[in-house]
Amino acid sequence: MPRKSAVAIVDDDISIREALTDLLESYGYESRSFESADHFLFDRHRQDVLCVLLDVNMPGRSGLELQNVLVRETSPPAIIFVTSRQDARTRMIAMRGGAVAFLTKPLDIAQLMTALGTIASEMGA
């Protein structure tokens, strides 16, 4: 089984994907970006993804719907929601669904890096 090391960015906004890619790479993380949940689901290399940075609102399958699919897998990636949606109900659903963190835009970089560091150390990455 390949070692999980990449961080996937799943967001329909290209500027967010590009900014997160640059940020992650500046901290030494390998990243891959996807414009939709389905693009991520059908990627043949997604099994080596350690963590998914996931938007809530996207055309097609939402971030919460993708989370529901991923948590049923044998070895699911960790999920960190990065969203502009700030309502308590959505946050509660995401966290009860197993998300590691629910971060809002504009993103607090320190919070993101802390969450990613925790995930990496727990997964031995």
Automatic annotation (TrEMBL):
One GO process term, biological-process aspect: phosphorelay signal transduction system
Modification type 4-aspartylphosphate: residues: D55
Cross-referenced Pfam families: Response_reg (PF00072)
PROSITE patterns to which the protein is assigned, alphabetical: RESPONSE_REGULATORY
Record key words, sorted: Phosphoprotein, Plasmid
Domain of life (superkingdom): Bacteria
Domain annotation Response regulatory: ranges: 6-120
Protein name: Response regulator
Species of provenance: Rhizobium grahamii
